[in-house]
Amino acid sequence: MAERSPGTRRTLWFVLSLVFAFLYIPIAVLVALSFNEGGLPTAWSGFSLKWYASLAGNSAILSAALNTLIVALVSTAIATLLGTLLAIGIEMRRQYGKALEALIFAPMIIPDIVLAIALLSFFSMLNLTMGLHTIILAHVVFNLAFVCSVVRARLKSFDWSIVEASADLGASALTTFRRVTLPVIAPAVIAGALLAFTLSVDEFIIAFFTAGAGRASTTLPMQIYAMIRFGITPEINALATIVMAVSITALTLSQRLNRGIIGQ
Amino acid sequence: MAPALAWLAALMVVPCALVLALAFFRRGIYGGIEYTFTLENFGLVFDPLYAGIFLNSARIAGTATLIAVVIGYAAAYAISAAPRRWQPVFLFFAVLPFWSNYLIRTYAWIVLLNREGLITQLLRWFGYTGEPPSMLYTEGAVIAGLVYNYLPFVILACYAPLSRLNPELAEASRDLGASAATTFRRVVLPLTVPGIAAGAVFVFVLSIGNFVTPALLGGGRFQMIGNLVYDQFLTANDWPFGAALAMALIAIMLLVLTAQALAANRASGHVTQAGGNTDG
Amino acid sequence: MSEPRTLLAIDHVSKNFGRVTAVDGISLDIRENEFFALLGPSGCGKTTLLRMLAGFETPNDGRILLDGRDIAKTPPNKRPVNLMFQSYALFPHMSVRANVSYGLEMERLPAAEIRSRVDAILATTELVPFADRKPEQLSGGQKQRVALARALVKRPRLLLLDEPLGALDKKLRGAMQLELKRLQHEVGITFVIVTHDQEESLVMADRMAVLKDGRLLQCDTPHAIYEHPADRFVADFIGVMNFVPGQAAADGVVATNGARISGKVPATLSPGASAVASVRPERIRLFPSVETANRITGTVDALAYHGLDLQLHVRTPLSPKPFLVRVTADAADRRPVSSGDQVELGWDAADVRIFAE
To answer: Which ranges carry the ABC transporter domain (chain C) (predicted)?
Structure first.
């Protein structure tokens, strides 16, 4: 409608404000409390960074953070490589089998808890010692699917005749990939990698089931879950603020690189 | 292609097949698995105690879905009605919370709903002096958490068909004599149903299998299927029954997805394109 | 001769969007039962004017009188005016029949009446075999007819058509122009069509208005506008015209090379002012056998066949652009010309129109 009555416009703005308040107030409260001297949600007692400082001295959290970083980096690297190749393979041959689509789509929609127990059963049947390596193996499963779908979205609009043009001009398949295909899809590959990294950093249930016994392979989300179960401590607020800042930055970057994952 | 497909086959297909197989075995006396074929795990799923948990989960997930769809559609409609250049900005900020850690978003609600949390503080500020209301560890808290966590996706799914809707269709309806309300009911809503369906299926599927939200916001008092599966594997040590529960969960999910696909097919080819992005 | 009744009076209507003025004080009368065209280049304000008639925009100033009643602020669903959208705006989730019934359902008519009126209009528009199809299963021409039927079935006082033939291919467009004329005659409803295609409005309209930059330049019958354009823009926009730039004199225009083009000089043009003389290609005679007031020799640059006639591009010292000359195939047979030939052109003073530059 070209013209809306002022009443309608006001209603629409009101709806938007309410929804944004609903979405952001919980997060804002958390962030604000992380800077609260007293640390209790009851009262504001002054600005302080002491909870951030106390995080820095918490060895359990630091080692969990390190574990998370290892898992996320390694699983993202593997998933980006495999997922990109898979996407190119599918789009180049244009074989969209139903089974193939289902196979790639499945990791994105299977309930986490199901994939988690499936992998737990699988690893224990093989008598594998579980640890960071099994978390990595598990994370690659869904990361690969996400990277593949992001890269495929870009390849849908890819003009394959430029690959033929490159071959026609005398380039080998490898040179064509390196100098023609890759530069065109690079933003999507990087966006997919950032998405995978974020998902991996945030993933809890699958890691929880495939980490095995012992604290050695605790990841950050597992640590956070334990802290939340234990009770509210101001340290979680600070940790939550940092984790949110990291994932939102990564996702914003990814969005900038590949307009379309979030905002299409 | 091959290595990626092999990875998926080895670490998704085989484990899932294994779970399916597990569900047909008997539980050992001291936990563990006894390799004799049985259907009793599936029978147990329909035991009133567990069937009740399924129904409970479905009710909680259904309520969360309904609320999320109503709020999400209203928000998507408001965004699609905003000036063109603001729409991507609003959409970006509507989806942004979706990308922060799920545990943390859930935890934020503990802080809010806590006996001494923000809401109690607000009530006090307005002059309330009685006992702090118990909001945390209720079914309402679980539903609020689910709605909060999945709302961004519903907004995204509903915005897609709304923004693609030719504004001249609504004008044509007005021109032919329909009021604004009739236009919404007979033109806008039917044409954006695929987005609503995509959003609803997403919220329902993720809610019914959810483990974290009932565990944290329900305080373990409100068991949902996800928690039940968790317990069978990590506490009760009855893997075959846990596997049967997981399969039942998958069956529900497939049922919902099939229903959506059928509905989308029926709503003529034209409308199916508005399915939205189901990456989540 | 009795003056036809005025159906719609547009009275000093203006509309601006922020700082942009889309329609600038336009006044027009549209008569009962006429086929009226609003013509102009894109951005001339014709679509905004149409949307104000339909009720989707409200004028900032002025009145829109339908049967003497001001409807400028009446919402679109409360006016006896219907619009056929440029995109057709057919409801994709409804069948052809449901699309056509929609407007009558809004009037809460009895089901039997809706049925018979829909049947009748589907028959008139030759859509009966497609009644149960969805819009996506129709061709462009069929969609156009559904859009037309959907608007006509409401028996509006006024039917507005926004570039109704724009989405059709050229051949179909020609057929639909005649079809629209026939339908308008048959249903006896006043049509107002918006178009940027001057040929279309010349063919279809009883009267037409030429708009530019939100202003009305001229409003008359196609013939009057073609033969006596109000200004240089209209002359150029409607049909094809040859222009000779120069300076106004007492009885014509002195071209830049000193040659004189005889013609009637408008009173508003004082001698010495910048002016253009113009003449239509079909008014120019090749190798004139009789005495003509204007005569020039030029070189044929190019020839183009247009079926029955031939168009010549002739380079002359009068203007930097070549003259366009239309010659019938008959005449061309009698005295064939080819590229590079020297030709003599002549035309009468009565066929010359002179405008301020």
So the answer is: 8-238
